[in-house]
Amino acid sequence: MRIINTLFSLFRFQHKSWKAVLLCIVAATVFWFFNALNKTYSTNLNFPVQVDYDEATYIPVTQLPDNVRLNVSGLGWDLFRKSLGLKLQPLHIQLESPAEVRKIPGASLMALFSPQLEGIQLNLVLTDTLHIHMDQRSMRTVGIELDSMEQYLREGYGLSSEILIQPREVMVEGPKSIINAMAVHAIRLPQRRLDRNFNEVIELEWGSPYISSNPPVVTVSFQVDRLMQVTDTIPLKLINIPPEVKGISIRSKVILTYQIPSKLAASVNPDSLHAVLNLHSITRGRSKALPVIHGLSPFSRIEKVDSVDIIF
């Protein structure tokens, strides 16, 4: 027991003594750290890269490389600051003909980067290849349209007006290879299952940060109404009957089922609603064909129409 008490007494310090010991440890650690930073080391570091080119003439097609990994040597203090990003200036790559360059081998960057590294020595470019895809800057007028309308409407509802897009054309700027391939740009609506009139500003999305338009938005508006279903028997008219066709057997009426916006139902003229069957290419024997419906509202949907048996 006396031995145990003796051991505890060796580690029995006053409060002030613990402070002194702690300060000594901190001071020794700081001294060792700064002493270690005054030695030369080799390490791998990421450095920011900036590609310089004529921005008025050229534009990226894909994102340009923004960093490169290098093996460098230098004083520990310099390497420590650079690893923290302190005083770390981007390494510049100058491109005279950007559209002609697709790859830059890492080995070819040694001579370019060495003069730009201050206070440290470049040993090796670890990044194997920098990929660059640039094109000439181009501008053209592109038409704007709405993609398939049916996907945005609630079941049982339909358009009751034309789709109005303002403006219908915008000036688009971007890489020439992409811009020249554009004829019409389809936009999407943010809402689905629409059952009411729509009038909103839609931001144009081009799928690339390097493509922009003026203006950057368009206004889309149209009217929506509940659809009503109508079934009617309408007259069938024959056109382009070949002279050699004699004694053709065909009925005079067909049954039509269609949907129409409720507020447009009254606008349908029953006397103008008819089916037309073109016999221009008819062949002898028995055949079946679908007539073309005339006289419906442009916002109607044909659900079903009788096919016609033709015998001659």
What characteristics describe this protein?
312 residues, alpha+beta, RNA Polymerase Alpha Subunit, Chain A, domain 2, 3 domains, 5-stranded mixed beta sheet, elongated
Shape, per Cα inertia axes: elongated
Look at the structure and give the mean pLDDT. Answer: 85
Radius of gyration: 39 Å
Could you estimate the helical fraction of the residues in percent?
10-25%
Cα separation of the termini: 127 Å
User: Which structural category do the helix and sheet elements fall into?
Assistant: alpha+beta
Q: How many domains?
A: 3
Q: What is the H-and-E element order?
A: HHEEEHEEHEEEEEEHEEEEEEEEEEE
Largest sheet: 6 strands, mixed
Unreliably modeled segments: none
User: Proportion of β residues?
Assistant: 35-45%
Number of E-state strands: 22
- The DSSP helix count reads 5
Task: Give the SSE map.
Layout: H1 2-10, H2 15-37, E1 40-52, E2 58-60, E3 67-75, H3 76-83, E4 91-94, E5 103-105, H4 110-113, E6 120-125, E7 129-131, E8 134-146, E9 157-159, E10 164-166, E11 169-175, H5 176-179, E12 184-187, E13 198-203, E14 212-214, E15 217-222, E16 224-239, E17 253-261, E18 274-278, E19 286-289, E20 292-294, E21 301-305, E22 308-311
Parallel strand pairs: 1-4, 8-12, 16-18
Antiparallel strand pairs: 1-3, 2-8, 3-6, 5-7, 8-11, 9-16, 10-15, 11-14, 13-15, 16-17, 17-21, 18-20, 19-22
Explain briefly what this protein structure is.
With 312 residues, the chain is an alpha+beta fold.
Explain this structure to me?
The protein has 312 residues and is an alpha+beta fold. The protein folds into three domains: 40-132; 136-222, YbbR-like domain (RNA Polymerase Alpha Subunit, Chain A, domain 2); 227-311, RNA Polymerase Alpha Subunit, Chain A, domain 2 (Beta Complex), CATH 2.170.120.30. The chain is 15% helix and 42% strand. It contains five helices and 22 strands. Strands 9, 16, 17, 18, 20 and 21 form a six-stranded mixed β-sheet that branches. Strands 2, 8, 11, 12 and 14 form a five-stranded mixed β-sheet that branches. It has a four-stranded mixed β-sheet with strand order 4-1-3-6. The protein is elongated and about 105 Å long. It starts with a helix and ends with a strand.
